[in-house]
Design brief:
Distance between the termini: 28 Å
Number of helices: 4
Helix content: 10-25%
Number of strands: 11
Radius of gyration: 20 Å
Largest sheet: 9 strands, antiparallel
Order of helices and strands: EHEEEEEEHEEEHEH
Strand content: 35-45%
Length: 234
């Protein structure tokens, strides 16, 4: 999986968008080649809190299970699949490890189209008492460019549906695409991406890189980055 870093540029007012300024900076500093447009869709659910009780079972106190987030998203790197991710809310700890750690996100893929639609309808209807939909966001007709060893995707992240959509900001994915240096580690690639971003001069962005994933590195590493950055303030 190519190394990527995600950036989120928030809006400064309800009727503004950082996208024109970002594109202007990119085209002023470089001469990018235009790539096909892209899109994503993201649904965020939160589990319904379980009722608390002080009862005991076989002499043991009943345990309360932590709430979880469930995310369903589509990404351009997975054109035939949707991604389903489940993450505990907040920090987690175990009996073996008393130190709190970042929650582990479990990711699986399901076929896009009718299979995904059926799964979402199941969450909204029969599983509605267990899962509450918190937000619906999307990027439509996002822009994409190639600059040397970097692929840049940028798009307005809109929340809501129809005419009630609100621009929350601009998400930018910068991917290091040079496949001729397989021996270069991800840390070096991330440093190259950050140097590219700093030269671009886009200020005030929230940044997420693969080092945020700790021991969760696998084929869905970049998916977990998207899950984190699309959570917004939920």
């Amino acid at each position: 999986m190519p190394t990527a870093i995600l950036f989120f540029l928030p809006t400064t007012s309800p009727d503004s968008s950082p996208l024109p300024d970002f594109v202007n900076r990119l085209t002023t500093h470089y001469n990018p080649s235009v790539l096909p447009r892209w899109s994503l869709k993201h649904r965020l659910f939160r589990s319904t809190p379980a009722p608390t009780t002080s009862s005991t079972v076989n002499g043991d106190e009943a345990r309360s299970f932590p709430s979880r987030y469930l995310q369903v998203l589509t990404l351009p790197d997975y054109p035939n699949d949707s991604l389903v991710a489940i993450t505990p809310v907040g920090k987690t700890s175990t009996a073996e490890r008393s130190i709190e750690t970042d929650p582990v996100t479990t990711v699986v893929s399901i076929p896009s189209g009718s299979s995904t639609d059926g799964f979402v309808q199941l969450l909204l209807t029969k599983l509605g008492p267990l899962w509450q939909q918190r937000q619906l966001t999307a990027v439509v007709d996002g822009l994409a460019y190639n600059v040397g060893d970097f692929r840049i995707r940028a798009g307005e992240l809109k929340q809501g549906v129809g005419g009630a959509q609100l621009i929350r900001g601009v998400v930018v994915e910068v991917t290091y695409t040079d496949r001729g240096i397989e021996e270069q580690n991800s840390t070096d690639m991330e440093e190259s991406i950050m140097a590219f971003w700093e030269e671009l001069g886009a200020k005030g962005a929230k940044t997420l890189s693969r080092k945020e994933l700790a021991d969760q590195e696998d084929e869905f590493g970049n998916v977990r980055l998207w899950c984190k950055i699309l959570m917004l303030r939920n």
